[in-house]
Amino acid sequence: MAKFDKPEDIKVIVATDCGSTTTKAILIEFTNGEYRLVSRGEAPTTVEAPFEDVTMGVLNAVAELEELTGRKILDKNSKFISPANGKIGTDIYISTSSAGGGLQMMVAGVVRSMTAESAERAALGAGAIVMDVIASNDKRLPHEQIERIRHLRPDMILLSGGIDGGTTTHVVELAELISAADPRPRLGSSYQLPVIYAGNKDAAEAVAKTLEDKVDLKTVDNLRPVLERENLGPAREEIHELFMEHVMAQAPGYKKLMSWTDAPIMPTPGAVGLIIQTIADQYNIEAIGVDIGGATTDVFSVFRPEGNKPVFNRTVSANLGMSYSISNVFVEATVPMVMRWVPFEMDERDLRNRVKNKMVRPTTIPQSLEELIFEQAIAKEALRLAFIQHKSFATSLKGVQQQRTIADAFDQKSSGDSIVNMLSLDMLIGSGGVLSHAPRRQQAAFMMIDAFLPEGITRLAVDSIFMMPQLGVLAEVQPKAATEVFEKDCLIHLGTCICPSGKSKKGGPVMKYSIELPDGAKTGTLNHLEMKKFKLGLGDDGLPLKARAVLEPEKQYDLGAGKGVKVDVELNGGVVGIILDGRGRPFDLSTLGEKERVSYLKEWMKELDIYPGM
Amino acid sequence: MGHAYTPGLKVTNNYLIKKDRILPLKGEVKVKVGDKVQPDDVVAETHLPGNVVPLNVANILGLPPEDLEMAMSKKEGEAITEGEQIALKKSFIRYFNKACNATIDGRIESISHITGQVLQRGKPVPVQVKAYLRGEIVEVIPGEGVVVACHGAFVQGIFGIGGETYGKLRIAVSDNSTVLTDDLITDDMAGQVIVGGSLVTADALEKAIKVKARGIVVGGFDDKDLRDFLGYDIGVAITGSEDKGITLVVSEGFGKIDMAGKTFDLLKSHDGQMACINGATQIRAGVIRPEVVIPRAEQEHIEVTGPTEVMGLATGSPIRVIRHPYFGRLGKVTDLPSPLHTLESESKARVLEVEFEDGSKAIVPRANVEMIEN
User: Fold this and answer.
1) Could you report the per-residue pLDDT of A335-347, keeping only the tens digit for each?
2) Rounded distance between C-alpha atoms, residue B29 and residue A363, angstroms
3) Domain closes at, from A99, A119, A145
4) Are A169 and B349 inside 8 Å of each other by CB?
5) How far is B114 from chain A (nearest CA, A)?
6) Alpha-carbon gap, residue A576 to A494, rounded angstroms
């Protein structure tokens, strides 16, 4: 960034994301007063043998960008031409990376539900995969914990424990366990394993003494200085520093890549988290983002449990994914839970073999409609399980004493409750192959609705080509460019889902609606177990058309304003439109009888036009 | 995308197979470049540090941690044996003395005056790395291990369980489509690697273990049988450490699938020869596939050469379809149209036209085939 005094001077941007299989490059240019995506290119990632140099994949992906756009980005020595001049060069080049398994961390804290959980939150927020959480009270014997630390070989360890001024014994004990395990870093044995200490400041000296000569220790501010407050920033920053210094520097070709970039390389999930936080801040909304990959599913959320202060959370479900981990989804969800989304019978033995064959041949794609429906049923379960995990992790701080008054007598809230509130959620963004590349956009919307069960009024979108990582790192350099491209080119606005929360008898009315659509007003009653779809698309600028709506839920249903309270809102359209979901919440398809389930599924699929020929 | 298809599994009669044999920690290499080795020969060995067993001596003796040092009768680094006294809290009356004894054999690793904890380190655990192949040492990585190489036949499987083993190859079926049933397993198959056709039944697998066969190589295996056999469901394909008394290499996939004719014929042509097999599978970055290596009986001197170039799909390439509705069928590419094609699922994908062995033709996504490589 030294090249530019002001972010506005940056007019041409090249950004790459080096994934474990594909390196994706995007070109953004400032034209006609706005930043827009010009094109994208991709090439196989070249971290592994026989290439073992990540920059080859980057150059190939950028070369594809050059071919597609006619812009000359690289000189004859394969160096970025900078700054840009007309159709030559780029002003900045930035990158994210998850190649080589991403950032793998182990965290330790004294109490599992307090400091250890805060440490886990810091590591996840920084974009790490948390391999294990060691805590003084995790019910494992010390020698078992030592064995575990020894065998894991993480990229780094985050050690926390104790509030400032509290007891030092337990956290020093954890340091002793780490010292005894004498852990080795995952990549290369030529350097010491980085350990970040972010615990009780009074124990810092003793921890340093215990770990001296064994690890490369960095001490930062306590991530839980008092029980009532987390201070995750310093630990997260240190994780990013060490990621660059140690992990990235060890991976093949990264030293060269680091010398090319104009901003530090960020772990891919960390960058996705950043863009979601930026968007939530900018539009003052609550948002959930999900990225379902082949091996893992990441869920990001920003909620405002106490007024305006946003709280960000990220979880990684390490073994929930659509290819490498597809069999695990099947195992964790169980066959009946997957099959409840399928409106026809399939032989279980055959199904099991099909799932395993996808696991061992992860790059195959569904050719027949039957296979597609089955794969999307598995996706719903993977998303549902990942979201359950997220909800149980995204909580208010545990162990905090709360003052109660008589007014709270009937409020059963306690510390540690999930802060995920589906009624107040404004936007749900999906990404990952199964959502972004679903043959019909309705399918992506249907998968997200069934898996996340949004309540009230929720906008739905998918990331068109998974460029959230690149936009995340761009948000650090040029936030305006990041948000403009995010809104106009990255997101495919699917529309809005309206689902009154509550329960009633089968068939009874759920809500009266009156929506002023461009082709005339739609007025009617939504009944229980009914779904409806209305067309409300995108404007010429690619942004959602708006429609005024008056929605009047029955007395046992809530749209976010209270049970039975009428709302007058502006709805956002999208490529799918407005979906009314009268299935109530909580909703469990498995409670319906077999015949009924199949008949309702077919009805919903027909109404929403999910699959051909239904 | 340079390669929008799955590179095939290798099935070849003449291949230079090289294996890294590396210790988990630095240690001693027992062989030198040029040495001829057998599968059971130890090529490198080391000692892993012993397990650590903490003991909160201060708590046991009822002492403040800062006084622990004085009570310790053993110092850091000193050897200990199980039951031996390592600390003593003295009292005015000897009867009230309180002792703390070592719980393992080993030495004292550390004594903490902050936590009162004493870490006992167990005796080092010896670890040996064997050659696995019959071949020649072509490289020594000092202190870390060696590279063993041999010329021979090489077959990659798609999935396996169990680790490295070897034995005489024994063809137990008449052709590649015959199911390997328990009645085909005989007592004289002890120590051998049995080759089946399209499927191995759960009963046959159990019987193979009973007769002490070392391994099975077969076209398919039923996932339900796999779960019953292992006692758990495999969620992520990372295998090789199962200790079930046998190594299984599946060449085609899950379900009843004929072993590719080429694979079967190759194995059959080596009936009775030594085969080194490994079921370890890892379907992630850094893919590991299970394998069958049949080292040539007479190993000439091995020249180390660079990797051979992988060729892309072309008209005429022999392929196998690896997803429904044509799963497991073999054929050759007859056309590679470049425009995207809309599939029945409405997905748009690059496809190819395949002519199956029976002469019928079909359009299949390129992502759903794998090349049969030579």
Assistant:
1) 999 999 999 988 8
2) 40
3) A99
4) no
5) 6
6) 5
Q: Do A291 and A244 have their domain in common?
A: no
Is A167 part of the contact surface with chain B (CB cutoff 8 Å)?
Answer: no
Q: What is the number of other CB atoms lying within 10 angstroms of the CB of residue A119? A: 33
Checking phi first, is residue B27 left (phi over 0); if not, alpha (psi -120 to 50) or beta? beta
**Which residue in B334, B296, B2, B287 sits closest to B149, CA to CA?**
B296
Q: ipTM, 2 decimals?
A: 0.84
Record: contact A349-B324, CB cut-off 8 A: no
Q: Which of the pair, B47 or A416, is modelled with greater confidence? A: B47
Split at pLDDT 50, 70, 90, the class of B1 is very low
Question: Where in chain B do CATH 3.50.30.10 domains reside?
Answer: 11-17+151-295
Q: Is there a single domain that holds both residue A111 and residue A95?
A: no
Measured between beta carbons, the chain A residues lying within 8 angstroms of B283 are 324, 359-360, 362
Residue to mutate among B223, B305, B343, with most A CBs inside 10 A, is B223
CATH architecture assignment, domain B52-122: Beta Barrel (2.40)
Chain B, window 231-270: residues with a beta carbon less than 8 angstroms from a chain A beta carbon: 233-237, 253-255
Taking CA–CA distances from B364, the nearest residue in chain A reads A367
Low-confidence residues of chain A: pLDDT under 70:
1-3, 49-50, 100-101, 187-190, 399-415
Among the listed residues A549, A548, A566, the one whose alpha carbon sits nearest the alpha carbon of residue A557: A566
Hey, which CATH number is domain B318-371, 2.30.30, 2.60.120, 3.30.450, 3.30.160? 2.30.30
Contact A295 B223 (CB under 8 A): no
Q: Which residues of chain A does B370 touch, with a Cβ-Cβ cutoff of 8 Å?
A: 361
Cβ <8 Å between B224 and A349 = yes
pLDDT one-digit tens code per residue, A39-89: 998 888 887 766 788 899 999 999 999 999 999 999 999 999 999 999 999
Local structure of A381: helix, strand or coil: helix
Return the residue matching tokens 């936007």.
Answer: A427
